UniProtKB/TrEMBL annotation:
UniProt protein name: Nucleoside 2-deoxyribosyltransferase
Domain of life: Bacteria
Lineage, highest ranks first: Bacteria, Pseudomonadati, Pseudomonadota, Alphaproteobacteria, Acetobacterales
GO terms under biological process: deoxyribonucleoside monophosphate catabolic process
Keywords per UniProt: Transferase
Leader sequence segment: none
Coiled-coil parts of chain: none
Length: 198
């Protein structure tokens, strides 16, 4: 059963060890602020027994979309994914999908470094190079002043994650909670969203 206090819980959490236990705890935290949290797994009954492959993935995508359609808002984990600078790309798509429906959103992360700093750390670890001032001719600066060794802008200054994903959360009226404790960060985001739902 869904209500106008039912919210979608999203992020790379579905891929983490102990995912079901993580979502159980997030649901409890939602309940403490008067929300009902739904995890992607809640819409995937029977899918977990199917063999890996394209058809199974499309069933998961369809089920997740249907779950988002039922929810009044969403809470999204923006933590970097697979040791990279960026969040899980599927979660970024879900943020855009729910914003397009006009639903309120909130985000959270344990990594409050500015996005360009995350890009710099990733480049250093993966490629042993550093960001440099923007030197590519005829390239706009706008959202950032640094580029990587390939001439790609390290954008989204002032954000903890890619400006489109984090920006959509802000455009919905929400905020991105930052705390070094994962569950505390989530609790702050959930309380923010709870205040904005009827």
């Amino acid at each position: 059963m869904t209500t106008n206090r039912t919210v979608y819980l999203a992020g790379d959490l579905v891929f983490r060890p102990g995912a079901i236990a993580i979502f159980d705890r997030l649901r409890t935290l939602c309940g403490q602020v008067g929300l009902e949290g739904l995890a992607p797994f809640d819409g995937q009954a029977g899918i977990e027994s199917l063999p890996p492959g394209r058809e199974t993935i499309l069933k998961i995508v369809t089920a997740d979309r249907a779950l988002m359609d039922r929810c009044a808002g969403g809470i999204f984990c923006l933590d970097p994914f697979r040791r990279a600078a960026d969040m899980d790309p599927g979660t970024a798509v879900e943020i855009g999908y729910m914003l397009a429906q006009g639903k309120p959103l909130a985000g959270y992360t344990v990594d409050g470094r500015p996005y360009p700093e995350k890009v710099a750390a990733y480049r250093r670890a993966a490629w042993n190079d550093a960001l440099r001032p923007r030197v590519t001719p005829d390239a706009p600066v706008g959202s950032g002043a640094l580029e990587d060794a390939d001439g790609i802008l390290a954008h989204s200054d002032g954000m903890v994650q890619n400006g489109m994903a984090e920006g959509f959360i802000h455009l919905s009226g929400g905020m991105v909670a930052v705390h070094d404790d994962f569950y505390q960060a989530f609790a702050i985001a959930a309380a923010d969203l709870a205040r904005r739902l009827p």
